[in-house]
Amino acid sequence: MGATGNGRTQAAAERAAAAPETALLGAAVRRFARAGVFARQFAYWKLRSDPVFIELLRRGLIPDGARLLDLGCGQGVLLALLLAAQEQHRTGAWPAGWPPPPASLGLRGIDVAPANVRRARIALGGEAEIEERDLQHAQFGAADVVVILDVMHYLPPEAQERLLGAVAEALAPGGLLLTRVGDPGAGISAAVTWTVDQLVTLGRSGRLHRFYRRRVAHWVAALERRGFSVAAEPMSRGTPFANVLLVARRG
Description:
Structural class: alpha/beta
Strand order of the largest sheet: 3-2-1-4-5-7-6
CATH superfamily: Vaccinia Virus protein VP39
Order of helices and strands: HHHEHEHEEHEHHEE
Number of strands: 7
Number of helices: 8
Shape: globular
CATH architecture: 3-Layer(aba) Sandwich
Number of domains: 1
Strand content: 15-25%
CATH topology: Rossmann fold
Low-confidence stretches: 9-17
């Protein structure tokens, strides 16, 4: 077989390997069809361009049976992906080499934006509890896993500290916090991150927002003061951003 044939064989093998992942993302996106064109297109773009969602599943970070609380959940993209993962795994359409997804989860999300909450409730139905509340004043109850993705820099320092304290209270010993933050020490990538955040904020609200950035080491120290052991992992694969995932286990 010539070089062209070998190339075609390799391409076919790559497509076959990617098919279960593509089906998983498609199943999650379809949940938003009832919520409107914007909701569906946003879910499509977010799931296919942002590596964090797939990585949470690929790494098996969310344990089976967990009570999961997504703070600043937006329109519920992560929750929709977790539900789609359960469905795809049951049908056998699951990426080879990935750990099984959590088969049973208690799903809750909190977001301050009414439009996000409406779209999430339509997409998720009764399979997740979605609350419209300000994280700065919310009570969280008990959880086994708390997820906070790209939210902390919107809050002033005192609110950041209160939120971390509330999360520590919500998690029992051994509970897990998964939070993604930007690294302001990452040079050009950091500048790109904050510029895009401002453009997104401007598009949503018509005004700029003041962001409150902290170096990754400061986030780690703040969590360690509250009894967490923390691992910081780059989470910008395939993007120009300066994002870091903090995997924090409460002692």
